[in-house]
Amino acid sequence: MNGYAGNILRLNLTERKVSTMLTSDYEDWGGGHGMGSAIFFDLVKDKTIDGFDPANVVTIMTSPLCGTLVPAASGRTEVQGIGVQSYPIGWFTRSNFGGRFGAMLKYAGWDGIVIEGRADHPVWIDIRDGDVQIRDCAELSLWKTDTWECQQSIWSHVVGDGGYGDWFEPRGQDGGHTTQRPAVLAIGPAGENLSRVACLIHDASNGAGQGGFGAVFGSKNLKAISVIGTGRVDINDPKALLATRLWHKENYAFDLAHLKENWASFQFQSPPVPVSLWEKGRPRIDQRPQACLGCHSGCRARYKDAVGNEASCFTSAFYSDARSLDIQRKASDLINRYGLNAVEMIFGLLYVRILQQGGQLKTAKIPDCPLDFSEYGSKEFVEQFVRMVACGNDGKGNDSQFGADISDGFVRAAEKWGRREEDLASGILAFPYWGLPVHKEPRAQVYWAYGTLLGDRDINEHDYDWLKYMDEESVHFVVKTITDKMVRFQGDMDMLDFSESNIYSEHMAKLVSWQRYYTRFWKQSMLFCDARWPDFVNIHRPDSVGATGMAEPKYVKAVTGRDLSFEDGIELGRKIWNLDQAIWTRQGRHRDMVHFADNLYEKYPSFSIDDGIPNVHMPGKEDGKWGMYGYSQRTLDRDKFEEFKTRFYELQGWDTASGYPTRATLESLELGYVADELEENDKLGEG
Ligand code: SF4
Asked: ∠193-202-547 over CA atoms, to 5°?
């Protein structure tokens, strides 16, 4: 089918073997996450293994839209496998990054990469079109480099030191030509040292942040994957694709000439305009928008002084107490270079600092902390802290038990210090679900907390996030516009009612379900970017109605020729969600494990990225009247949340006593073989 390269690269690092899988065997899943879950399920027979086990399989998948002109979908890549960050079980999980890696992989002739086994010494992968080699890191002295040094060494090695725009023949004179340099995905010292909060970095700041995939790469002795391609992606109907892009840009996208006005309204509507957090609360400095390949949103920045390039969201929010903006931007670069997950670093530093301020760092079970807190805010302080987490030492090259503990993640550190339960309950250890850091205010934006707990990671899906900025007058229109687009459950406006009486209802179960289905397919399999999709309500339209529902299938049809309706995609998302639940069930998940840390049920305040907002307002229907109401100063009700879980499982067609998928549901999704495996392992739900 058009849009696909046709082959998936399979690498067995133990055997140093390179082979090929046919994409057509997995095309029904769309791409990205769907393909990754299906391949993982097929290849990993014992799904109870630890993420560090060599038998863990990591998939790095593109979509048919990668490398094409589809905006905010062309440059994303999905990573999956058993992670090592969550607690108590490292769930089968996912991460996703932007840039140009996925597109370059397609140009080289590959729809994805499947990584198996463990090399007996450090290696990197050199992909030049169809020529793929597993090479020793020693050749280029790559081991012990940071992610930027590693990429620069590979760039120089592969394309030499020519200038931008120079033509290059990656496979010699008989091969193709390109003016590009390779796209490299690398780990830094954190991954090499198996820090559970290590991530993968591509270019300056495209990070597959969650899941600890940097450590999984490190455990496989895999330092980097480099790819350069000279081919193309075949498009089913190039004219239709171009017309759709132009229609989309003219009708639904921001206008660079009116950036300031667009920014003023950004907080109230989607889609985003090219800004970074630094511009929001800090003095403006010289920057220009920077985009992933093919995207017209350009939501990141490049700076005149090249410090903090491409960083956005959590990466740019790290060390916000720095004594100067320059130090904060340098701190962003540090976590990118060392290859660390930004959100874990933010809430981890907050935790250590609260312990220090309360005098609790000196308690018996906590080893000596080498940090000098009188230097908090300085460049030296953050450098030491980053090195401690990345290298598991005192940040200066000396052994430190404290450094080793926090390198294993802050929840596991608290566990070693005998403080996990107490600090999760008080909220100072702000990791309320699966030992993962909080993000959006979980009591107000309950769909975010529910989706994370019922899944495998901080969902980091902003579909309904901007609702908190809405004004009273718009509530009814916006709620109606959004829910009208939510096919399968469309028309049920009560899905967006966040009042106390509704947050445990079947309406809320539908809201959470729809997000799970939409994101699993359209965002994580077709790889439409979270920062841009879905487009529910759009300020650039006279009627304010966004392109979601219309645009996604148009693009898929133009690229692949496949007649896939929006609802078909939602249904495929439901199938993928069920497959993921089956994998978690095989890993040991039972409904009894699915609960928040005590803090969310019992105490206020909690910490979240919305801390600056005293009471997060969300749409609600109070006394029958829609409005914006503050909901973050409540606690969740333990019993009612259990009732919500039952409603949610019922809606999925799962066993409400165990949360296990049932044969009837799996077979209705053509997943009978998944039901067979669950049954063989006594994990099939009743009903
Ligand atoms: S919206 Fe931003 S992160 Fe998403 S594809 Fe575009 S540039 Fe990349």
From this structure: 130
Name the token pair of 656: 């409400």
Measuring CA to CA, which residue among 39, 191, 170 is closest to residue 112?
39
Ligand 1 lined by 291 (C-beta under 6 Å):
yes
Count of other CB atoms within 10 angstroms of residue 511 = 29
Q: Is the pTM of this model over 0.70?
A: yes
532 Cβ below 6 A of ligand 1: yes
What does the pLDDT read at residue 259? 54
CA of 143: how far to CAs of 222, 339, 659, in Å?
Answer: 9, 13, 43
Nearest C-alpha neighbor of 590 from the set 57, 82, 89, 93: 89
DSSP string, 431-456: --BTTB---S-TTTSHHHHHHHHHSS
Rounded to an integer, what distance in angstroms lies between the CA atom of residue 196 and that of residue 219?
A: 11
Q: Is the dihedral of CA 236, 272, 205, 88 positive or negative?
A: negative
Cα–Cα distance measured from residue 553 to residue 576, given in angstroms and rounded to the nearest whole number:
18
Two tokens, residue 44: 């990993």
Q: What are the CA-CA distances from residue 552 to residues 321, 514, 567 (Å)?
A: 40, 16, 11
| Predicted local confidence at residue 285, as pLDDT | 61
The pLDDT value recorded for residue 303 is 83
The response to whether residue 293 sits with its C-beta less than 6 Å from ligand 1 reads no
DSSP 361: G
Is residue 33 within 8 A of residue 112, CB to CB? The reply is no
CA of 532 to the centre of ligand 1 (A): 7
Q: Which residues contact 67 (CB under 8 A, 6 or more apart)?
A: 74, 102, 103, 104, 106, 107, 232, 233, 293, 294
Q: Which residues contact 50 (CB under 8 A, 6 or more apart)?
A: 56, 82, 84, 90
Residue 651: partners with Cβ closer than 8 Å, 6 or more residues away: 506, 509, 510, 513
pLDDT at 282: 44
Pocket test for ligand 1, best of 316, 460, 462, 532 (most atoms within 8 A of CB): 532
What DSSP state is assigned to residue 138? G
Q: Where are the beta strands (DSSP E) in 319-432?
A: none
CA of 394 to the centre of ligand 1 (A): 36
What is the C-alpha to C-alpha distance for residues 651 and 593, in angstroms, rounded to an integer?
19
Cα separation, 464 vs 534, in Å, equals 9
Separation CA 109–CA 96 (nearest Å): 20
Residue tagged 């670093």 (tokens): 345
* Tokens read off for 262: 């667009």
Q: Residue 235: count other Cβ atoms within 10 Å of its Cβ.
A: 20
Which residue's CA is the nearest one to ligand 1's atom 5?
A: 72
User: Which amino acid is it at 237?
Assistant: D
Whether 91 contacts 33, CB under 8 Å: no
pLDDT at 357: 93
Residues of the chain with pLDDT under 70: 254-285, 604-614
Helix (H) / strand (E) element for 480: namely helix 475-485
Place of tokens 């409603």: 647
Phi, psi of 448 (to 5 degrees): -70, -45
Cβ 311 under 6 angstroms from ligand 1: no
Given a contact cutoff of 8 angstroms between Cβ atoms, the answer to whether 190 and 205 are in contact is no
Shortest-distance atom of ligand 1 to CA 532: 1
Pocket of ligand 1 contains residue 404 by CB under 6 Å: no
Q: What is the DSSP string of 55-102?
A: T--EEEE--TTTTSS-TTTTT-EEEEEE-SSSSSS--EEEEEE-SSHH
Is 290's C-beta closer than 6 angstroms to any atom of ligand 1?
Answer: no
Q: If you measure from the C-alpha of residue 552 to the centroid of ligand 1, how many angstroms do you get, rounded to a whole number?
A: 16
270 C-alpha to center of ligand 1: Å?
13
Q: How many CB atoms lie within 10 A of CB 42?
A: 13
